[in-house]
Sequence to fold (162 residues):
Amino acid sequence: MASKKKATSSRGPRLDAIALLKADHRQVEEWFSKFEKASKAKKQQLAANICDALTVHTMIEEEIFYPSFLQATGDKDLHHEAIVEHAGAKKLIAEIQRMSPDDDFFDAKVTVLSEMIKHHVKEEEQPGGMFAEAKKSRLDLHALGEELMVRKKELQARAKAA
Fold:
């Protein structure tokens, strides 16, 4: 992974894994905020953006960040809780993706997803949370961030092609 260091340095500042994941969190929070005030037509697009972003985000966390975190820290409690929270969010995302703003429970499901994500983000970002513990560990957060970004772009490209 250190071999990727050279290739990314010419592109400006390098994101570490935590910065990349937090940037995803802020983007989704912004879309959830806009959703609350949006028209039906706009709600459909915002919900699609939210679901697509969360799908990619959960995949890169589960495939790359979480296993690296667990290996570096041995903290099964934080790891397992995050996996369980993801499972609940993924179930709700799948339901929302099959719906439209005309469906009775559409707004309620997006609202509950928002609350679930706010809780999950707070858990990850708080002192003593997964991100703080990852920073204290021996994880190479820059190399991990580069790996996350490569996989994120790959998943986004695959979603656009579908």
Remarks:
- Residues 40 and 101 are 6 Å apart (CA to CA).
- The helical segments are 4-9, 17-37, 40-73, 76-97, 106-125, 130-136, 141-161.
